[in-house]
Amino acid sequence: MLLGRPVILQDDTGVRRELISLGALRRDERRAAPAFEAAVDRAARARLLGGTGAASLAVLIPVWIVIGVVRAALPQVPAVLVYLVGYSAGGALAYLIWLGGLSVYAQAMAAALLADGICPACAYNLGAQPVVDGVAVCPECGATWRADRIRSRHQFASSVRAGAPGGVSGLARFLGLGSGGPTSITDDRAERRPIVSPWLASAIRAAGGPKRERLIAARREIRRHGRVRRIIPAAFFAFACGFLAFNAFKARRFPSTPTSMWMFVAPSAAIGAVYLPLSSLCGCSGITADHVRAAMLRRRLCPSCAADLDGVPTGGRLCHCQHCGAVWQFGPATSPSQ
Ligand SMILES: [Zn+2]
Ligand SMILES: [Zn+2]
């Protein structure tokens, strides 16, 4: 459901179904199970594939230009009329672009959920469902899915989370920290796919043993990139906002200063002095899809879904991820133990 409009996709018999929302998945009680959380994270990353939010906002820029030109060329036309028509047309166009992205992301998100055996229509765990004639029928909502699309079968048993590094927490995600970075990657069959989060947080929580070590090592390598591009803005924001907050608070002592100056500006700047540096440091600027690809493939991990590629048979040098279907070509001289 998005702005009251359900996102529709077809199941594998062509029946129209409503795609489960990311919000419902995030509220699901199975979320305590790291495997479920990792699956939801993969679905959320897949959703970015069809994301046209930025593109639809970008439409507003030409709209502003056109409004400016019309205002200059036709000064006799009432300004209200120009703005009304301009913004209505721009808004309609933005909405259409955004709708166009929906079907793309619905497909990508459904594929990601099914790969983990989660019904894309109702989130039922299809992991234990019997396969008849190559399909699995969801007992909860009746949707029919091709069994070969289910790559991993989970139990989603809740377990205590390991306290070791997981990366961005729920609170950090709520505050928008740790966002940014690449949103898609092209595999070696030239197919655009979702990409793992550069923090690898949920993948690390869900993994155990040596795979966990490899994921942590991959994250360390990924996050080495773009460090300067995160530290410099962080230092700048801390200094600029701190300076502003300090001076706004100080201005309180002068009777000529409007109260709003220190009542509003000072706390806002103080919050900015903490939030902006944090979001820059936890963000992913300077990290590209190529960085993620190199670090993950070097450790035989899928850059699209973080699945273990170690031991997966390679046809020639191409490796077919059993979990998400991405195809990767390993670079020369790679070893999983690195
Ligand atoms: Zn279902
Ligand atoms: Zn994969």
Outline the secondary-structure elements.
Elements: E1 8-10, E2 16-18, H1 22-27, H2 34-47, H3 53-58, H4 60-73, H5 79-115, E3 135-137, E4 144-146, H6 170-174, E5 184-186, E6 192-194, H7 201-206, H8 209-224, H9 227-250, H10 259-282, H11 289-298, E7 314-315, E8 318-320, E9 327-329
Antiparallel strand pairs: 1-2, 3-4, 5-6, 7-8, 8-9
The structure holds zinc ion (2 copies).
One zinc ion is lined by residues 119, 121-122, 124, 138, 140-141, 143.
Average pLDDT value? 85
The total count of strands amounts to 9
- Main beta sheet: strand number and arrangement? 3 strands, antiparallel
Cα-based radius of gyration, to the nearest Å:
24 Å
- Helix run count: 11
- Return the structural class: mainly alpha
Neighbour order of strands in the largest sheet: 7-8-9
Q: Spell out which ligands are present.
A: zinc ion
Low-confidence stretches: 159-167, 333-338
- From the N-terminal CA to the C-terminal CA, the straight-line distance is 44 Å
Summarize the amount of helix as a percent range: 40-55%
What attributes does this structure have?
binds zinc ion, 338 residues, two-stranded antiparallel ribbon, mainly alpha, 3-stranded antiparallel sheet, 9 strands, 11 helices
Kindly summarize this structure in a few lines:
The chain is mainly α. Helices cover 48% and strands 8% of the residues.
